[in-house]
Structures are given as C-alpha cells and as structure tokens.
Amino acid sequence: MKDAPFLNLVLALVFLVLMGWLLVIGKPILLPIVTAIISVYVMTSASEALGRLPVLRHFPSVWLRLLVLAAFVVIVLVFAYVVAATVRDIAGVAPVYQANLSRLLQNVAVMFDIEEQQLWNEIRSLTIDKISFQAILLATLGGFTSVGGMVFLVVIYAGFLLAERNTFPQKISAAFRNRESAEKAHRIVTDINRKISDYLAIKTLINMVLGAISYVVLWVFGVDFAPFWAITIALLNYIPYVGSYAGVAFPVILSLAQFASIPVTLGLAAMLTAAQMYVGNVLEPRRIGRELNLSPFVVLVALSVWGALWGIPGAILSVPLTSIVALILSSFEQTRFLAIFLAERPETMTADRAEA
Question: What InterPro entries does the annotation carry (predicted)?
Fold first, then answer.
C-alpha cells in the first residue's frame, strides 16, 4: 500500500497526542506512582551500598531496605518541617523585606539623580508600590506545600514497591511463555535498572554535597531560611541546565531584599555560583560522565515537554524518564533508529546492535 507510511505517521502523531493528553489528565494518579518508582531506584542503590559495609554485610537485604525506607521517611518529614517553619516565619519578615527593597531602590534612584523625576515616580507607583513581597514569597512556597499529599502517596507506594522488588523477576518470567522473550525482557529491565540506579544514586549524592556547601555559604552570609534554600538548591539541581541557576536565583533575590545591599548580594551570588560551577563542571562529569547517553538537545526538549506536562516535578524527572524511554527503544530492532536519534553517542547503539 502506497499510503501505508503516511498512515503510520498519522497514527503515530495521534498516539503521541493521546499520550500527552493522558499524562496531563492522569497527573494526580501517575505522578506519585512515577515518583515512587524513581525513588525506589535511589533507595535500592542505597541499600546495596549499605550491604557492602563491613558492619551491615551480613544483614538480610529486607532489613537494609527497611532501614533505607525509614531514612527516606525521616528526610521527607524533615523537609516538611522546614517548609512549614519557613511558611510560618515568612509572614513576619516579609514587611521588613518590602521596606528594605523599597529603600534600596530609592538609594539607587538618588545615586543616579532621578528620584525627583516624574518618570521615576510613575514607575514606582506602578511597580514597587503595588508589589506585595509577602504574597510573592507565599505563592512561591505554596508550590512546595501543595505537594504534601503527593509525598505521602509516594512514601506508601515506594514502601510496597521495595517489599515486592524480589518478586519482579519471577513475574517477568511468568508473563512470557517464550523463554527467549523472557530472557530479553530480563536483560532490558536489568539494563534500565543498572543505568538509572547508578545515575540517580550518584546524582543524589552530588546534590546532597551541593546542598551542604550552599547551606554553609548561606549561613556565613546570614541569609534567612538557609536550610530551606539549601534543600531547594539541591532539589532543583536535578533539573538539567536551568535548575542549578534557578536554585541560586531564589536566595540571591531574597538576600537583596533582606540586606538591601548590592555588594553583599553580589558576594553571595558569586559564592553560590562558584559552588554550582564546581559541581556542574568538575564533580558531575567526573562521577557521572555520560552514563545515560542522551543528546543535550534531547535533554532540553525532554525538560520542556515533561515540565509542560507535570510542572517542576516533571522537570526533575525528565532525564530519568527520557532515559528509560531511550533504553526501551534501543532494545528492539524496529525502534532502535529512534534511540539512535536520541543518543549523544550513536556509535554505542550500533555497537550494542552488533553484539545483539
């Protein structure tokens, strides 16, 4: 049939549109499940790392997973406490920030001798006088408080996934009548588990280091809510390219309103940016390298797509989700060409094809 290629293209486009629609409509259900699966990758790597320690080497794997799950719950509770404390305290300092920012801008106007000009007064009346710093801060923090219910579901799902992890190989074997198909499915799942687990484990460790360094810098400068901003920087560093700079922007802008001092703000920005550059240009390439083999352009597109579908959580999950899709595509002859277009190093795909 001459129209077969065109028909296949139309069907593929319809499928993509339907998938996008389902992802948007099903976000309240799908996002906690996907987040729990990604979290289990990190916790599995952590439990395996604990099992290599001399003290815990002889402990059953179930106990180690329970220990890691308990640590995960504690981390979630600590983060929830930090967010709640920040939201509670922000109302008291917001008016001070508003006054400091207004005074700083007035000093800048005096410096450039424009404070008496009509244009400056009109700009001030339309912008500064109408901006509520408290509303902006509470709206920003509202994005964190709104995910409280989802985090509870993530913890529950992750606990059950960890408990059933040992049964997955048997389920895969039982799902395929053909032994060859079952072995191929095992290889695909094992490859995905290894690459995603390694990436997420190292990335999480690096983000914890970045968060600790950022906290020290924020504490030295005396920035308010330093624990919250350090955690935010660590979380946003999961987002490729823009996440690290967005994480720095929040406390830097806050410091401008808190201290009303441009030199202090510039110093803070320089120190936080230096920490980000060290992590992004030295530590990450050395520890992570090119493990996931995704083209930078594909990563950027994935960031845009998943961010549009699921917001900030989607942006954080964009790299591992796209990597899973690429690994699945590369495992089948019919779709391998799509994986090659997604890859940064296509020669690795052809090498895998030759081995297969």
Answer: AI-2E-like
Instruction: Return d(Cα 347, Cα 239) in angstroms, integer.
Output: 27
pLDDT digits (tens, 9 = 90+) for 297-313: 888 899 999 999 988 88
**The one-letter amino acid at 151:** V
Helix-then-strand count for the chain, H and E: 15, 0
Map out the domains of the chain as residue ranges. Answer: 30-163, 179-291, 292-356
Q: Is the pTM of this model over 0.90?
A: no
Tokens describing residue 344: 């940064």
Choose among 109, 129, 107, 131: nearest CA to 120. Answer: 109
Residue the block writes with tokens 């803070």: 268
| Residue 194: closest CA among 65, 317, 53, 292 | 292
Gap between the Cα atoms of 312 and 296, Å rounded: 19
Where are any strands of DSSP class E within 199-326?
none
